[in-house]
Amino acid sequence: MSPEPPGGSAYSRHSHGLEQFFSQVQGQGPLSILDVGGVTQSNVEFITSLGHRLYSEDFLRVLDANSGPDLQANFLKQNLSFPPACFDGVLLWDVLEFLPQPLLKATVERLFQVAKPGSYMLAFFHADEKAVSVPVYSYRIADGKTLLLANPQMRRPAQLFNNRAVERLFAAFQSVKFFLTRDHLREVIVRR
């Protein structure tokens, strides 16, 4: 399964970050996993087949539906309104790049609150720091190490991150581990 260029309609590829994420939760369960990329049938089927509970939010849909001075309050009211320390894992995909400051900071702080100590998060960041727009995919889990990237749309990021900026973003967390891919996505495993 070799990756196709991101200009295609869909392609599958190996994901070291996804493999690492699921290796950390393998054999444990049932766990609570949060997916902030919206509901996809393949993600629901894969995660529930492992015996875990899946919770889904659609950060970009909520972001697009809200604007103005109440953006942060409305966004956080509609997303991440969970009790403290309730998630064993969070699939962030690439959504953090599209959140404007200070919403990004408030969202990461809320993620820190709702994730259990020692839990893992998987986030993607585009590696081309000069890009004006980047492809946004629906990330669909094929298996514990393979993703199908489907339905690409181009979108202007609120900010792009280099490695140091990602480390600063997750400074309150225990660790940050990077994987660089052929399709110019930086996969990041964050440990709470």
CATH fold name, please?
A: Rossmann fold
The H-and-E topology, N to C, reads as EHEHEHHEHEEEHEE
What integer value in Å does the Rg equal? Answer: 16 Å
Oligomer: single chain
Helix content: 25-40%
Q: Supply the CATH architecture.
A: 3-Layer(aba) Sandwich
Strand fraction band?
A: 25-35%
Give the domain tally: 1
Regions with little confidence, pLDDT below 50 for 5+ residues: 1-7
Number of helices: 6
Across the major sheet, the strand order is 3-2-4-5-9-8
CATH class group: Alpha Beta
Protein structure class: alpha/beta
Anisotropy-based shape: globular
Our measurement of the CA-to-CA distance between the termini, rounded to an integer number of angstroms, reads: 32 Å
Query: Tell me about the biggest sheet?
Result: 6 strands, mixed
Question: How many extended strands?
Answer: 9
Q: So, the CATH homologous superfamily? A: Vaccinia Virus protein VP39
Mean pLDDT, to the nearest integer, reads: 91
Describe the structure.
With 192 residues, the chain is α/β, with parallel strands linked by helices. The protein has one domain (10-191): Vaccinia Virus protein VP39 (Rossmann fold, 3-Layer(aba) Sandwich). 28% of the residues lie in helices and 34% in strands. The protein has 6 helices and 9 strands; from the N terminus they run E-H-E-H-E-H-H-E-H-E-E-E-H-E-E. The protein has helices at 16-25, 41-49, 59-65, 71-78, 103-114, 163-169, and strands at 10-14, 32-35, 53-56, 87-93, 115-126, 134-143, 146-155, 175-180, 185-191. The strands form 2 sheets. A 6-stranded mixed sheet has the order 3-2-4-5-9-8, sandwiched between helices. The protein starts with 9 loop residues before the first strand and ends with a strand.
